[in-house]
Amino acid sequence: MSWMRYVAVALINTVGVVVGIILVPTPQLVLAQSSPNTPEIEYRIDESSLYDEPSEVVSPESNITSTELPTPQSLEDLYRLREQLKANLEKVSGSPDISSLEAWQYELQLQQYQTRLRALRQTEIRIQREEEAAKLWEQVTQLASLAVATGKETPPDWETAQNFWVQAIDTLRQIPSETFLTQQAIEKIVEYQGYLAIATYERAIVQSEIKDQPTPQKDSQYSVDVPQFPGFEMYADTNRDGMISESDEVRPTQWSLSTGPLMLFNNDDDDRDGFPDWKDQIVNGKYDSEDLAEVHFKVSPEYQGSEIFISTDTQAKPFVNIFQKTAGGWVPVDLTGEKALTYNQDIILGVEAKQFADQNWTGLVRLTAVARRENQEIASDSIQIGVAPWMMSPNTAAVSEVHVSDRGANREFITQVKQVVEPSGATTKVTQGETAWMQDTTEIGYVQFPHENTLKSYPVALQGNRSGESDDYAQSLMTRNFGSFEVGEPRSLDVVNQGLDWYSNLEVTPPLSNYPMGRIYYGKAEEETLHPNVVQFLKAQQVQGPPIEIDTSWLMVRHVSEIINFIPSQTGEPLLLIVSPKAGVELIEELAEKGYEGAAINRGLSTQTTVRAALNNRLLVQHNLQLQREKIDPLLKKLKRELNLDEDQIVEVPVLFGYSGYAWWPNLINVVSVNGELLAPNPRGALIDGRDYAQEDFKRRLVVAGLNVNFLDDSYYQELKGDLYTGTNTTREGSQQPFWNALPTSLK
Question: Which of 81, 114, 225, 430 lies 20 to 30 Å (CA to CA) from residue 130?
C-alpha cells in the first residue's frame, strides 16, 4: 500500500509567532505498484516549478502508459478515466511519515501531487465540455424534429420551420470546438443549411401567392402586419400603454423587445397557497387576472355558426397557459385543436408565460386562431406576444425593504440595521431561521409591464443554487405581486470554487450611457464560472447585457462583490468603489510614518494585530502590491473601457488581502446603500485620538457621494469571513423608465 507523506507547515501570525502546525499531504516520490488487474497511470513531474517558472500543463491522456486505456473516444471513456485518476489519488493517502525526507523532497513530492490533481481537473473540465456538447446536440435533435414536423403540417408553416432550422444551426455553432461532436456538428450545419434554404424558398412561394392588401394609413415606425381576413382579427396591447384600443390594431410584422404586446411570467402567488400562479392553470380572481396579457378577438357576424380554434407554435406550447374570458369566469383554452372556443363576436383571451426566456425558449409565442365550417378552414389570424424579461436591481436604486436573518449571534446587528433603515423610509424584514447569508442565496430583481397608462413593476426573487444549503428564503418572499423562480440546480464544484454559484457573485451596474438599465457582471475562476444555466438565462434577457466576466480566482470565496461595488452620488453619476491593495499598504505606512506603529488594527476581532506587525510582514505587503499590479489595475482598465466610466466616478478603497484571498481587515467595498444612508462594516482601524483612522479615511474618500455613512458592528459575520453585505438583502424599486425605451446600444 502506498502512503501519503505530509509536510509540516507552521501557521504564523502577523507578529511572526507560530500559532499552530498543520500537515499538508504530499505523495511519495515513487508510485506504488498496482495490482495486475488495475491499470496504473504514470505522472510526469515538471521540475521547472521548483525554480519559480510556470509549470507545464500535462494532458491527462499523455500520462497514460501503453498498458492504459487508449485515448478517450467517447464521454464514457472520459468517465472511466476520471474514476481511474481518482483512484490513483486515493492510493497515496494514509498515515504520515515526516521523518525521512528533506525539504527539497517535500517540494518535489508536492509537485507530483499537484500534477496528479491537474490531470484530474483537466479531465473534469473535458467532461464538462463534452456534457455541454451532448446537451446542445440533444437540443439540436429536438429542433430539427420540430422543423420537419412543421414542414409536414397541412398547410405547412414554412415560417416556423425556417425559424426552427435557424435555431438548430445556431445551436450547432455553440458546440465547443475539439469535442467528440465537433465534426458531426460541422457536417450537420452543412446539411441543415440545405433544409433551411428549402424552407426559405417555400415560404417565399407562399408569400408571393398572397394577394396584396391595402395598408392602413396610420402612423407607424414599423412595417404593418395586415390581417388576411377582415372581420376576423386578433389584437393586443401592441403600443404598450396598458390598454387595448383601436390604435393596437396596427400590428408589427415581427415582435421585438421594443415593440409588440408583452406577457408576464406569472410567478407571484395571488391566492397565497404557497405556489406560483402559473402552476395551477387557473385564474385566481381579480389580482391574478391582472397578470394576464389580454388578446381581443373581433369576429364579424359572417362567421356565425363556425367553430374557432386556438393553437400556438410547437416550441412555445409547453411554456404558456391560455384562458378565455366567459360569463362563468376564465376557463383554460384547449390547444390540441379538439375543443373550440366559446363563440362570441368579441372574444377575450388571457395569456401567461410559465417561465422567462432562456436557452430553450426565445420567450416568444405565436397565437393562431382558425375558423372552421364543415371541417373547412374559412379564416385565420395570428399575433405574436413576448414575455417581459427579468431584470436585476442595481445597488444604487431606492430600497423598500432590507432583509436580514435572525440566525446567529447578530441581535445587536439587527437592532443597528433597524435604527438606520427605518427612518430612511424602508422597512426591515427579519426572516426566521434562514441562512445567515441572505445575499448569497437569493437575487431580488423585478419585472415591468404596462397597466392602464402606467408602468407597473413588482419584485421577483431568483432562487440560488447552493449545494447542501436550504434555500426556502426566496420562496418565502413570494406573495401577491412578489414573484419567485429558479434557474438550474445545485451542482458539485470543488471546495475552492463552490462559492461561484452564490449570488454575491452576481451583480449589475447602475444605469450607464450605453446601458440604460445597467449591465450585469459576475465572477469567473479559470475554467469555472457562475452556473452555466444562470449565465445562459441572463444572456437571454438581453436588456442588461452582454454580461461582463471578472476574474475572481484569487479570492477565497470567488465573489465579485468583494472587488467592486456601486453607490449613488449627489451628482447623479454613480460611483464605482474598487478595492485597492496598494492603498491598503499606503494606509498602514501612513500610520507608521505618523508614529502610530503600536496602534491596534482589526480591533476586537480574532485577527487583531498592530500596524508594526503588519508592515513587518513583508510577504503580505509584497503579495498585496502584486495583486494591485496583476489583478486590480488590469480590471480597472477593463471596466473603464466596457462601462465608459470617467476617472471622477472611481473611488479606490484601501483593503489588504491575505494569501488565501480573504480580506485582511473588514472590506469597506461591502457597503449597502439605503435611501441616502450607507450601511458599512466597521473597519476596526487604528484609534487615533479616539477616532477610527480607517473610518475617517473612508468618509473622506466618499465626500462626493453625499451619503450618511453608518459603521455597523458586523463582527459576527466578519469572524465567519463574511460581512454585512452578504448577511443582508434588499428589495429595491424598479426603474421608472420602461425597458423597451431603454435598450442597450447594441440592441437599438
Answer: 114
Q: C-alpha dihedral over 533, 537, 539, 544, to 10 degrees?
A: -130
Q: Is 418 helix (H, G, I), strand (E, B) or coil?
A: helix
| Among 669, 694, 690, CA closest to 680 | 669
Q: Is residue 327 packed enough to be buried (19+ CB in 10 Å), middle (13-18) or exposed (0-12)?
A: exposed
Count of CB atoms within 10 A of residue 431's CB?
17
Overall residue count recorded for the chain in this entry: 748
pLDDT, tens only, 472-493: 788 888 888 999 999 988 888 8
Return all residues near 99 (Cβ < 8 A) that are at least 6 apart: none
Q: How far apart are CA 683 and CA 692, in angstroms?
A: 8
For 410, the 3-state DSSP assignment is coil
**567-622 pLDDT tens trace:** 999 888 999 999 999 999 999 999 999 999 999 999 999 999 999 999 999 999 99
Half-sphere exposure of 94 (CA within 13 A, CB side): 14
Chain centroid, CA 184 distance in Å: 31
Q: Tell me the CA end-to-end span of the chain in Å, nearest whole number.
A: 66
Among 504, 171, 528, residue whose Cα is nearest residue 362: 171
All residues at 6 or more sequence positions from 47 whose CB lies less than 8 Å from its CB, including other chains: 108, 111
Say whether the peptide bond before residue 155 is cis (omega within 30 degrees of 0).
yes
